[in-house]
Amino acid sequence: MSSALHIRQLGVREYESVYLAMQQFTDRRCADTPDEFWCLQHLPVYTLGMAGKREHILKQGSAPLYRTDRGGQVTYHGPGQLIVYLIIDLRRKGIPVKRYVHLIEQAVIDFCEQCDVPAKRIAGAPGVYVNEKKIAALGIRVRHGRAYHGLALNVDMDLDPFLNINPCGYYGLGVTQLTSEGCRLDVQQACEGLLPCLINCLEYGDCRVFMESSLASVAVGNNAA
To answer: Does residue 11 lie in a domain region?
Structure first.
């Protein structure tokens, strides 16, 4: 069984094509398919989880709304926000779902600590927070022991679109970002800092980095290590 991890840098993407590629990859992967992290930014979009309630969308604005199969309520993605989709065989790694969520949160907290940003969890509210404001959102889906979707870390973005929603279904929840907390990084720098924390928390060793300009090669879920 593969213990390798492939990391793909996908640039700025519209939401739907990446979402469909994640599903296809997960459906087609086999026992030896390496896990993958997809690092990217999205064009402006609101996404609503499987059980998401439209009442949490106060005003949609100009960004499209996309219903997705992750857990959670509504959130916003846009340029200046780091997305890391974690496409992982949890059964193979022996990680229960609750533990998996905890480990992702811990990786973000560890990275924020390196940036001198005092991040923390809030009981009963998945994600990572700074001074009661959300800096990172989590949303996952697990099918047959295999997880996809992942995390969104606000780095240096326009936060105004969050005013149109109840972020993650919480009325009046504030949001923040690294630059607002005094950490002056761009998205690529944040990615380079966060990835080692994720790799450490999720206990990967053999990592291989890809620079991809097309999603065609990542949607096949083949056996290549």
So the answer is: yes
Choice between 3 and 132, residue whose per-residue pLDDT is larger: 132
Pair 72, 139: CB distance under 8 Å: yes
**Which of these is catalytic: 39, 112, 115, 168?**
168
Q: How far apart are CA 192 and CA 195, in angstroms?
A: 6
193 vs 217, residue with greater confidence:
193
Q: Is 197 a catalytic residue?
A: no
Q: Does 223 map to a domain?
A: no
Domain count along the chain:
1
Straight-line distance from the first to the last Cα atom of the chain, in angstroms, rounded to the nearest whole number:
10
Q: What is the DSSP string of 61-112?
A: TTS-EEE-SSSSSEEEE-TTEEEEEEEEEHHHHT--HHHHHHHHHHHHHHHH
Whether the predicted pLDDT of 224 surpasses 70? no
- Check which CATH number belongs to the domain holding 54 and give it: 3.30.930.10
Please provide the average confidence, as pLDDT, over all residues in the chain.
92
Find the domain containing 142 and state its range. 5-218
